Task: structure prediction
Amino acid sequence: MSKDVPGLIDTDAYSAQLRSRAIDVAGGRILVTNFLGTGQERDLTEPANCAGFGRVRHFRRTTSSGWPPNPLPIDPACGSLGLERTDILRAQVFQNSACNWRCWYCFVPFNLLSANPKHAEMLTPSRLIDLYLDEPDRPRVIDLTGGQPDLVPEWVPWTMRELRAHGIEKEIYLWSDDNLSNDYFWRYLTDDDRLLIAEYPNYGRVCCFKGFDAESFSFNTLADPSLFDRQFELMGRLLGVGFDIYAYVTFTSPSSEGLRDKVARFVDRLQALDPNLPLRTVPLEVQVFSPVASRLDEVKTAALDVQHSVTEAWLRELDNRFPDTLRRMRIDEVPLQGRSKRAPRDGY
Ligand code: SF4
Result:
């Protein structure tokens, strides 16, 4: 729990504790979830694959009525691999077994987020890629998800080296996500790791804003509200690295007051990082998957409605700020100022 606010997570202490259990740096191994026999397995539409360590996910562009479409990672992957645009994309998912936050809407059962060895095993990326290559009809997209993959940021460059060693780096698109909670990308990766990520041809990352103000952020994650500011600091640093980068945002909030102003301030903050960042930011609709139902109370149930009002304010804000030509652009073609491939340097 937070040393400052009872009931909130002490994110830095918990992150360090989870990392110590979720990676074996000397052995090059990551603690990866095995879905067999877990609560999450029951929610899978296809049986787990890769000896239980993988699952195939269908990313869909279409969302529920009135909600903006979700082109991630469909458009970046198709653009990068030279594939025709599609509305459904199959991806091979691997999930690390640790997350430092506890979003009430998370579709992963919390017992799969605590680096729990009962449902996970230390594996090298080499072993994971071998399992993947053994699969028939394997997707051309690999998604390293969580959990919070950036508690163990080595996972991405280690996987890149493995794909390169197999000579398949140009056929496979690698996607990972990041909850913007820690600076481990700079603290634990080497300059060579960061250079590899910046220059890797088929890689994209999505970073998740867990609310549109400090109140909604803390309500959603159980983290200290001050860490909402840190999400922007980290996003700014990642934008400077120069790889292909996107954002998600969740709009659930305990309050429905002053939404228009709050959303305008949120968009201001995104634009302070990059003028076009809002156009690379996708609102994610919170839906009630089975682990979520038992976490709902009156305020959270109301927050599911609030997210729709926030989305309306978001769409109005984008309409006011961007010309149609930019609004209609494919998400992976929206230019970012820092999106020039370059070597990491001190201060990244
Ligand atoms: S940060 Fe992501 S993985 Fe962690 S609890 Fe929130 S939604 Fe789940």
Notes: Confidence is low (pLDDT under 50) at residues 341-348. The pocket of iron/sulfur cluster is lined by residues 99, 101-103, 106, 108, 113, 146-148, 179 (CB under 6 Å). The first helix runs from residue 11 to 22.
